[in-house]
Amino acid sequence: MDAIVESLADQQAELADLLDGLTESSWHAPTRCEGWDVSDVVLHLSQTNELALGSATGRFGEVSEELTSGMGPATSIDEGAALMVERQQGMPLPELLERWTIGTARLVEVLSSMDLSTRVTWVAGELSARTLATTRIAETWIHTGDIAHAVGVELVPTGRLRLISRLAWRTLPYAFASAGRTMSGPVAFRLVSPSGEAWDFLPDEATVTTIEGSAVELCSVAARRLDPASTSLIGEGPDTTDVLALVRTYA
Question: Rounded to two decimals, what is the model's pTM?
Fold first, then answer.
């Protein structure tokens, strides 16, 4: 199994362990995702895993239509995700857990059997199946944290954050373009892993802006779960403020 697909399976396993044995009240605990309880977050992950499976099998448009049928128009990706959850809220919890479990297993199976350099369709346009797998690691990590926070569990950061950090770094041009901003030049990340190892992401051309600090904090900022001002992250260069404001790991 490719290392990235294995990391996706590991991240899903972390969430599975968290969900295992949750009481009914815990499933309905409010999360940091405004208006969503734990079950809504799991439903969202189930839906987006199904979209990713559709992407990997050349059925993205068809699966998207199935999940959005009857919905009103959405003005943004976030609004579309919220409408999809609203459309299917209230599933019986055993059925919801089974849906998520089957979807995650099937996604890993399909990604394991394909050439990860294959270009596939996704929400933000075409990308490689390898990048698709990495975005699923990132989103699953984000929402595993949301659920853990809701039920009072503290998670231990893992080396999977290296993949998420790199995704945040590589997609900075997309993040800037989506916000209608222009980068002054290449950006470098010099991060410290949870174990204290140096994780450096350096451009091929001369660096204009450098961000330094904790990889955990950087990933949390990119996930919109932590205000950059409340972190120890520091930067040097003209785009420092914009990088920390715009960096993201999702479409």
Answer: 0.95
Q: Which structure tokens are listed for 231?
A: 């972190």
Residue type, 158: T
The residue among 163, 181, 174, 180 whose CA lies nearest residue 219 is: 163
* β-bridge pairing 234-236 and 209-214: antiparallel
Say if CB 243 and CB 188 are below 8 A apart.
Answer: no
DSSP 169-226: HHTHHHHHHHTT---SS-EEEEEE-TTS-EEEE--SS--SEEEEEEHHHHHHHHTTSS
Specify burial of residue 24 (Cβ count, 10 A radius: 0-12, 13-18, 19+).
exposed
SS3 at position 129 = helix
CB 206 within 8 A of CB 186: yes
Query: What is the SS3 assignment for 67?
Result: helix
Distance CA 25, CA 87 (A): 22
Q: What is the pLDDT of residues 22-69, one digit of tens each?
A: 999 999 999 999 999 999 999 999 999 999 999 999 999 999 999 988
CA–CA separation, 190 vs 174, rounded Å? 20
58: nearest Cα among 4, 126, 11, 3: 126
CA distance 14 to 41: 15
118-162, pLDDT tens digit by residue?
999 998 789 999 999 999 999 999 999 999 999 999 999 999 999
Domains contained in the chain, CATH given? 3-151 (1.20.120.450), 161-246 (3.30.1050.10)
Give Cα 114 distance to the centre of its chain.
Answer: 21
